[in-house]
Amino acid sequence: MNKFICNTCGVQTESAGTVPEHCWICTEERQYVNPKGQSWTTLEEMVASNTYSNEILSEEEGLSSITTVPSFGIGQTAYLVQGENFNILWDCISYLDTATIETVKELGGIDAIALSHPHYYSTQVEWAETFDAVIYIHEDDKQWVTRPSDRIIFWSGETLEVAEGFTLHRIGGHFKGAAILEWKDGSAGKGVLLTGDIVRVVADRQWVSFMYSYPNFIPLPAPTVERMAVQLNEIRFDRVYDAFHRIVMNEAREAVQNSAKRYVDALNGVLFKT
Predict the structure, then answer these.
(1) Are 109 and 129 in contact (CB under 8 A)?
(2) Is residue 213 part of a domain?
(3) What one-character DSSP code corresponds to residue 95?
(4) 48 located within any domain
(5) Are 205 and 255 in contact (CB under 8 A)?
(6) Which stretches make up the Metallo-beta-lactamase domain (predicted)?
(7) CB 89 within 8 A of CB 127
(8) Where are the beta strands (DSSP E) in 14-125?
(9) Rounded CA gap, 233 and 169, in Å?
(10) d(C-alpha 220, C-alpha 267), whole Å
(11) 115 belongs to a structural domain
């Protein structure tokens, strides 16, 4: 029995005796099946290959990024946030080895894992079991869990305080249960949002964007982005970290609002004429 990992999205399945025919995540319109065909690996195969390692960097006091090198799957970055006697892993990556475990334990371990949306579920149960952590997923995305576990807590409503200083906000958009993490003490007490790609920092780091599907270029409707902007405006933050190690360093709350307006104006045909 193996727990297979999709090579395209990096999400792990529950134990199976044979290779699955399709990836439940990739066959949905927000993701894609590799043009070369569906392929799978396992965490054991990844470790044995000696191909991968995880780069763990200190981003600011209390925050470390974790990224697999070379890139695997979607290539997202996870973040370990250290609070007062409580550490939370924001989003997850597929690769986990002894070196990563040792470094994370040196940083205080993991008490909880919180996920922005299904594309980053990866090997979340492996991480949770390794560090004796619980997993927080919004109940609206329950159907996308490909490896069930008693460690998963399906939360409901619009906000959840996971621990002092850490609040999850369901803002939807990319997925119905799409969430972001508010870290109140981040950026020297001015507040940080960790957004996955629910709010994605673009090439010009003073702007962000919002999408239903990034690889397939499907935009979100204007009313959805307007609603998201209202919710985001109610949160105090000065900095944003997205899933691909892009950061709006300062005045991020204003940047998000400006970006939402620009996005809506573009969809409504008032931003430009071409």
Answers:
(1) no
(2) yes
(3) -
(4) no
(5) no
(6) 75-244
(7) yes
(8) 40-42, 53-60, 63-69, 78-82, 87-90, 112-114
(9) 12
(10) 9
(11) yes
What CATH number does the domain containing 243 carry? 3.60.15.10
**Of 155, 158, 164, which Cα lies nearest the Cα of 184?**
164
- The SS3 assignment for 42 reads strand
- What's the mean per-residue pLDDT of the chain? 97
| Residue 1 binned pLDDT confidence (cut-offs 50, 70, 90) | confident
pLDDT tens per residue across span 32-59: 999 999 999 999 999 999 999 999 999 9
How many angstroms separate the CA atoms of 147 and 125, rounded? 7
Is 236 inside a domain boundary? yes
- Tens digit of pLDDT for each residue in 73-130? 999 999 999 998 999 999 999 999 999 999 999 999 999 999 999 999 999 999 999 9
| CA-to-CA dists, residue 24 to 13, 107, 151, 221, angstroms | 9, 34, 21, 25
Question: What tokens appear for 38 in the block?
Answer: 């569906």
Are the C-beta atoms of residues 232 and 167 closer than 8 Å to each other?
Answer: no
Structural domain count, the chain: 1
